[in-house]
Structures are given as structure tokens and as C-alpha cells.
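Encode chain A's predicted structure.
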Amino acid sequence: MYKEERETSGCPPENKFQFLGNSIFDFTTYDGAIDELFAKKMLEVIAAIVNRTTFEYQGNEANYINYLTMVNMPFLQGKLEWGTSIRGAWFDEYGHHSEKEEERVYQITYDWSIPKKDINDFMKALLEWSEGWPCP
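Encoded structure for chain A:
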């Protein structure tokens, strides 16, 4: 998706973070620097969730505010589960028992979805892919 967007868009992203911010996380800012900032903040939160370090991540006020903001963004809505506090959320790989198997998917973009059982692997791959910076 990233390569295609870079090659075909009339206004291509300058880097992976802008691509993630706009095309995957669905932020609308019309400001490349803010797209990058928001994407990096979302990736921090995803890493904390995947690594089960959400409480440690929230150890300072800035990260606490960032965590609560990002878990309430549309990209993460419906993808998280938590017990008694959203502060300790994890990715829901199972869905609800009432869902049919073919309904157990997460919509990532308007035309792309993944099975719920693959959500942790997808998030890990997203983190790995985004670490290769700077990207030409």
C-alpha cells in the first residue's frame, strides 16, 4: 500500500509516518509534520499494548494523556479489550462469541481487513515496518 501510494498519489506521503497517519490510522490534519507526530504517538501506544507495558508507558503525565487519547481514536476503537481499566488494554484476538467466523475481522482501511486472530501479528508487523527510518 505504501509503495502504491507513493507512486500513484497526486500528493504522496513524504515518509512512512505520514502514510501511517493518513492511510492507516486515518488522521486528518492537512499538515505533514502533525501527521508524523500523531503516527509516532499511535505507534508508541501500539508498542505498549503489544508489549504489555501499558502501565509503565503511562508513568508520566504526557504519556498518560497520549495513551488515553490514542486508545480513543477511531483506529483502535473496537480492537481493544480491557478488564477493569482501559489503562491495561490488550488487542482482542477473539471477538464476541456471537460473531460468525467470517465476521471476525477488523477493518483496517475502507477496502482492507484482517482476521481478528491476526491483530497482534499485524500490529507487530506494523511496528517492525515503521522502524526502518529514515525511509527514502
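The first helix runs from residue 2 to 8.
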